[in-house]
Amino acid sequence: MNIAKLFGSEIKELIGLIRSSGKECYIVGGAVRDFLLKRKDFIDIDLTTALSVEQLIKIFKKNQIDFDDRAIRYNCLTVSIKKRSVQITSFRKDIRTFGRTADVELIENIEEDAKRRDFTINAFYCSFNGEIIDPLGNLEDLNNKELKFIGDPEARIIEDHLRILRFFRFVAVLGLKRRNINPKYLPIIEKHIDRINDLSNERVAAEIRKILLSAFPSFALKLMDKVKLYEKVLGTYSEVSILKLEKLESRYNLTPCLVRRVLALQIQPPIPLMSKKEKKYFNQLNDLMNFDHNPDYLGYKVGEKPSLDFLVIRAIKDRSTVKAKDIEKIKKASKKVFPIKFSDIHSFSKSLSITKEKINLMESFWIKSGFKASKGKLLGLIN
User: Fold this and answer.
1) 123 and 182 housed in the same domain
2) CB under 8 Å to 344, separation ≥6 — which residues?
3) CA angle at residue 266 from 262 to 268, to 5 degrees?
4) How far apart are CA 353 and CA 359, in angstroms?
């Protein structure tokens, strides 16, 4: 495997630089897992090495590589290289754990490092030469898409409470089914569900976002409800609404949209879930819900995507249907161009406000006519 071609030349260069110290460095975790699953777009790249963070810092300073050391107490650095952020951790094993932090001992072999990871599907390493290393023999779990904790599940959760949310995230993102989940895990997770109160809002929000933005999150959300996690972070659970939402999104080829799903499922998370751009879109769609707009108006004035999202959200909330003819009207209306220009009527009035008023009047008439009113007909409305 050519890691430069697969993960980027900057990643191979960074690994090569670290290895020049005489210590090994590997790509680890999600990127390797996703490669083995033949998934594309490796957004998050994590590296692990036998070097300590102090040794890494010396190398990065010497080679003028920008790094963020805010997580240094976790033996972790974030490196910026060619406009890409990469997390690098030292090989380590836990001595004592405290939910999100731990006292650790630095080690030099990946077998011990692998044992402290969360799930068997995340304990794969990729070397500088592209060799895949499976130190714990977990490849069969990945091939079968079985989500298993490494070792004792209760111990793994107590070590790091975020693993509760990560469990459901992997169920959603990997599209896992009931057969892929050990049912004995759910009572254990439920027993420790209040431990997520110890996590920061930002950590919780990051995991919830990934769940809600997965292609088909319904099964993960159902499991979350079963262990009383859904109501804790998202509000009131409605399986009917969730399944209907997935069905409508699939029927009309709608890509996952956080705002659409939050509004359709009436999610009220006590966490900072949305970006500024998403909050703006949320307000736009939320305002539309106060009116019963026709498809022509929606398509022309609002645009195709927000209009389709509006119809889906309304169908979920009102327990109504989305009509194919309305979808078609929206798509056609979104491409319409108003035939009247400002200059066409400005000569009729010297007042700018009256001119705008006339344009709005004609535009409204044109939309109600189904975009059939001619330019002459519209200009005739001035008198």
Assistant:
1) no
2) 375, 379
3) 80
4) 10
Are 284 and 318 part of one and the same domain? yes
Alpha helices in 38-132 (DSSP H): 53-62, 110-115
**Whole-Å CA distances, 174 to 72, 181, 220, 228, 251:** 31, 12, 10, 22, 21
Same domain, yes or no: 18 and 140: yes
- For 189, phi and psi rounded to 5 degrees? -65, -45
Per-residue CA distances from 28 to 39, 44, 58, 186, 279 (Å): 15, 10, 22, 27, 34
Whether residue 103 has pLDDT greater than 70 = no
Q: What is the 3-state secondary structure (H, E, C) of 229-275?
A: CHHHHCCCCCHHHHHHHHHHHHHCCCCCCHHHHHHHCCCCCCCCCCC
pLDDT in tens, 246-265: 999 999 999 999 999 999 99
Buried b (16+ CB within 10 A) or exposed e, 314-345: bbbeeeeebeeebbebbebbbeeeebbeeebb
Residues 1 and 138 occupy one common structural domain: yes
Strands (E), 44-91: 46-49, 66-68, 76-81, 84-90
> What does the angle CA 325 – CA 217 – CA 247 come to, to the nearest 5 degrees?
20
Whether 49 contacts 68, CB under 8 Å: no
CATH number of the domain within which 25 lies = 3.30.460.10
Domain that holds residue 300: 238-336
- Please count the other Cβ atoms lying within 10 Å of the Cβ belonging to residue 160: 21
Taking each helix axis from N to C end, the angle separating 53-62 and 9-19, rounded to the nearest 10 degrees, works out to 110
| Confidence check: pLDDT of 102 > 70 | no
For the entire predicted model, the pTM comes to 0.88
